[in-house]
Amino acid sequence: MGSVASYFRNLNKKEKKQEEERLLRANDRGFNLSFQYANNAIRTSKYNIFTFLPLNLFEQFRRLANAYFLFLLILQMIPQVSSLSWFTTAVPLVIVLSITAAKDASDDINRHKCDKQVNNREVEVLIDGELKKEKWREVQVGDIIKLENNEFVTADLLLLSSSEPLNLVYVETAELDGETNLKVKQALTVTGEMGDSIEALASFNGEVRCEPPNNCLDKFKGTLTVNGQAYSLDNDKVLLRGCTLRNTEWCFGLVMFGGPDTKLMQNSGKTVFKRTSIDHLMNILVLGIFGFLATMCAILSICNAIWEANEGSAFTVFLPREPGVNSSLSSFLTFWSYVIVLNTVVPISLYVSVEIIRLGNSFFIDWDRKMYYPKNDTPAQARTTTLNEELGQIKYIFSDKTGTLTQNIMTFNKCSINGKAYGELCDFSGQRIEITEKTPRVDFSWNQLADPKFIFHDHSLVETVREGNPEAQAFFRLLALCHTVMPEEKKEGELFYQAQSPDEGALVTAARNFGFVFRSRTPETITIMEMGRKVVYELVAVLDFNNVRKRMSVIVRGPEGKTTLYCKGADTIIYERLHPSCSNLMKVTTDHLNMYAGDGLRTLVLASKDLDESYMKEWRKRHNEASTAMEDREERLEELYEEIEKDMTLLGATAVEDKLQDGVPQTIEQLAKADIKIWVLTGDKQETAENIGYSCNMLREEMNEVFVVAANTAEGVREELRSARRKMCPDAAEEPSVTTARAGLFWLKKTQTVQDEKVDGEYAMLINGHSLAFALEEDLELELLRTACMCQTVICCRVTPLQKAQVVQLVKKYKQAVTLAIGDGANDVSMIKAAHIGVGISGQEGMQAVLSSDFSFAQFRYLQRLLLVHGRWSYLRMCKFLRYFFYKNFTFTFVHFWYAFFCGFSAQTVYDEWFITLYNTVYTSLPVLALSLFDQDVNDRWSFQYPQLYAPGQQNLYFSKKAFLNLTAFSCYSSLVLYFVPWAAIHDTVRDDGKDIADYQSFALFAQTCLLIVVSIQMCLDTYHWTAVNNLFIWGSLAVYFAVTFTMYSNGIFVIIPSAFPFVGTERNTLNLPNVWLTIVLTSLLCILPVVAYRFIVMQIRPTINDKVRHRARKEPPPTPAPRRPVRRVSTRRSGYAFAHSKGYGDLVTSQRFLMKRPVKGRVMLFSHITPAES
After folding, report:
1. How many Cβ atoms are within 10 Å of 1095's Cβ, its own excluded?
2. Do both 689 and 734 map to the same domain?
3. Binding-site residue positions
4. What is the DSSP code (8-state) at residue 921?
């Protein structure tokens, strides 16, 4: 036994020991297994067949309510204590536990199926010198595996070799970052030389020493040691699990991290059990109710002791006490008896009903056809059924950009050529015509090499190009030549372009459709088809793009021997380098650029320059010297570039649309009206994020100021944040106002809240990732939060997945507001899990975010319907349900309390035992469920028309501690009326025949009938939206009550089981009396009239937005959604250059070795004609 214990102790020590560095050896499983690295199997399930029952029951009994009802069940099995049968608690408890267990089991079975599907995928693994098919779960660290085109990457791999030149591979990372454009990875030369030689790969014994498993997607550090020589490894040499191999015949990789250690799974993080703010409030209220229950029971037990001492002795003659029971013991037993009798203040059906309501409202989200995206056949999905009402309380939204706000699709929209704008359509009066799907498109059938997916509407541009306009042809010739795009032509005429950024791909495709088709590269030439004529240009040099230059140039020599420089770049950069003769054209083009900026388009300016041959010979000589210099190489090259890129001639400008998802600006506008703040957290560069901010109307020209925080030191960041804050709110205190409070169960949790500060005007803030890293440190985080919350819009650029989660947690920690995170890639998973609500965008961009989300749909625009309609209705319904449920049960229970003073505090129930059993399960359960599933204050159209209706949920106005105390007081009043009015009416009353009717059974029937009618009328008052279901359940429940009561109190039932149905004949003897019905009416009026009067007065004196809209909705037809027309902004700022975030492919295409491609049988060679810029 001791050895077993020591084994588990050692096991725990191993688990706790954190990996600091990973060491592995290729093709040596024995060596790698000694480190006990995780294999490639993944497990997202929580249970197995043996652990399900104990673990699930343990989790369920951790809920305070379930443990409480188990305790009650034990009490009810003690005869001396219980006055109710044990099954009244046992049956509902078993049902609750079973329903929850079935739901958990179903969820876990689905997880098991997903795990099994992934783990059983097959891949070729190099074992004992030959390739064998193995399941993913069998793959070990140190194995060498072979991947083929369009296959998923099995694990995190070190790329060894590939079928492509320069050992390149192309991967799609949509599952990781939501981006659909391909990324390039490149193997080391020392491993790439092995190619696909099985012998060389099998004998490879390189050792990798690298960082331990982590969730950083864009960084990797390590070294590969081969034959004693160490080689540096970075992120460009690593293939991550979750990527898909594209346009690459095959590649070999060395497994470095498997299964749970992969970056994909590390980013998934631990599944957090999310609970709504109403859940937390209910826990506190239930705890308070327990205290209140204990207080009531203590009062009644003390009263019982006093009564037994003073009055009880008189009854012992005919009601003798049990042996050994005195007044003290009787009082003690009475306490526990009343715990059972009064337990309905927290009925177990409450938790069953809450789960049913949440499940029902989740189905409404799943079934909503207005959130269904037919293009991808993707419906909305509520993946978590326990968070619906939280959707109605969102205050902060954290959104990714790429794939969430945008489609990550660039389209060539407009252009300006030689001072004339193209791309817009105008009528005869010169008014702009809106372009729709019905607008006639340009016919490109004259161009056999045109891309059939390209859409353009301005026919005049095609006519201009086909007429031979020299400026227009020079414009598109530049677009066809000045780029680093790589072509692929699998079949004659079927061209595919691989661009480093979608922007460049869009420009080359535009040139292709207008008759200037980039066809192929060779070592020293670029071949294009110019209006059907093949033209070969000699590529003299490529002056590549980088973030400092903000431009790119190529120097080419045409067939006639003329050498030309073509340049494209940001307008401010190009304008500085134009010839003075272009000043007039520059003014006209600037007007066009401002117009394009107003439409949120991304612009580039194009220019060219004819070069003298003698000058070029001398320039090339100096360029060659600078390229081979050992010192100051970059500076010398930059000087040469600056020298030649001068006195250029302006050709025009392009406008590319970074296509937003449909309805994004309108959605953001609606959410802003609902007082929801939206922060964009993106890995993109600042320029791109800023462009999208303007396109979405999150950033606007009329804003007072847009602050940019980009300092590289902590002190610099502090100063920039403070400077921004002082400009927005000069009178604000230097130190933030932080309110400390206690919260949570037993008030053990300490909370800190940073108060909002009023700001005059509208401001926005952009902050870079490196600045954000400083701002998130402990001494700066409050300054960041304070400044950011003063702004209408916050955009964080170049942020890591971890920083996204940290920003969400910062707001959760100090604002005590409900947060929602929405994204589409694995880099958004940590943010989605950190927020109260996580939403995944499903579709072409990958499913990793969806798998970790609580709700998912295909388009960002559906978010407004999820929040403003489903979320608001769910919150309203849940609050109404809780208010009504506590009201009816408190009223029911308090009548027992008043009755105790008339029954000698003996724990006798005031109602019939069958009524107690059926009250919550039959008579009042269905009506309140109908209310909670179908009620709506106004319909969805009015909800969209008035987003301000969302505000009460953010402020917790419908259900709070104050609302709970109010309904408790009202329940107390109602119970007094429901007990004492029938008691007074029946006291000393006789029937028409002179017989006394003031007996216990008649009073019990009288009181319970009054109670049920009053709570039903209250239900009618609380119902805003009447449906056939509501009518059926309310009136049907009353009918069922009378039918069941007549049946149970009949002679026939009494004869069968006399002990179970003692109230024989009570109903027909009581309910046939006119004064009984008159008393029921009087009781109902006394209970309901104060409510009606109070609501009427409040509505007249202090109407809420809800009251106003409901009043209007009764008088007017539902508003028809107006078609949104694009509004042009007036803007002087231009959006960013359409380049990638990092340096271009210039170095790649300038390498002679780029042509060294391994032949592959039966396949057209990819990039078989690619040109180096110069030798």
Report:
1. 12
2. yes
3. 400-402, 504, 545, 568, 602, 682-684, 798, 804, 824, 827-828
4. I
What SS3 class is residue 524? coil
Cα(1033)–Cα(1030) distance, rounded to whole angstroms?
5
Domain shared by 88 and 127, yes or no = yes
pTM of the model: 0.80
Are 498 and 617 part of one and the same domain? Answer: yes
- Residue at a domain's end among 869, 904, 931: 869
The residue out of 319, 346, 373 marking a domain boundary is: 346
∠ CA 626-627-629 to the nearest 5 degrees? Answer: 60
For residue 422, tell me if it sits in a domain.
yes
| Known binding-site residue numbers for ATP | 400-402, 504, 545, 568, 602, 682-684, 798, 804, 827-828
Name 823's bridge partners.
840
CA distance linking residue 526 with residue 483, whole number of Å: 11
If asked whether residues 716 and 789 sit together in one domain, one would say: yes
The overall longest dimension of the chain from CA atoms, in Å, is 132
Angle in degrees, 0-180, between the axes of helices 327-341 and 64-76, rounded to the nearest 10: 130
Residues of the chain with pLDDT below 70 are 1-17, 82-85, 87-88, 174, 177-181, 268-273, 312-326, 347, 429-430, 500, 522-523, 547, 742-748, 843-847, 990-998, 1052-1055, 1057-1062, 1065, 1121-1175
Say yes or no: 385 and 457 in one domain.
no
Q: What is residue 155's predicted lDDT score, i.e. its pLDDT?
A: 94
Alpha helices in 696-800 (DSSP H): 714-728, 769-775, 781-790
Is 647 a residue of the active site? no
Instruction: Compute the distance between CA of residue 715 and CA of residue 721 in angstroms, rounded to an integer.
Output: 10
User: Which candidate in 400, 544, 599, 937 is catalytic?
Assistant: 400
CA distance 694 to 657: 12
Q: Is there a contact between 858 and 840 (Cβ–Cβ < 8 Å)?
A: no
pLDDT for position 1154: 43
Does the residue 738 lie in any domain? yes
Query: Domain residues for 253?
Result: 140-268
- CA nearest neighbour of 188 among 252, 103, 98: 252
DSSP code of 1124? P
Residues 393 and 302 both lie in one domain: no
Closest CA to 599 of 695, 698, 702: 695
Which amino acid is residue 754, in one-letter code?
V
Which residues participate in the annotated binding site for Mg(2+)? 400, 402, 824, 828
Residue 474: enclosing H or E segment and its boundaries?
A: helix 470-481
Q: What is the CA radius of gyration of the chain?
A: 38
Q: What is the dihedral of CA 853, 854, 857, 863, to 10 degrees?
A: -110
Q: Is the dihedral of CA 858, 863, 869, 873 positive or negative?
A: positive
Q: Domain check: are 655 and 668 in the same one? A: no
526 pairs with which residues across the strands? 521, 537
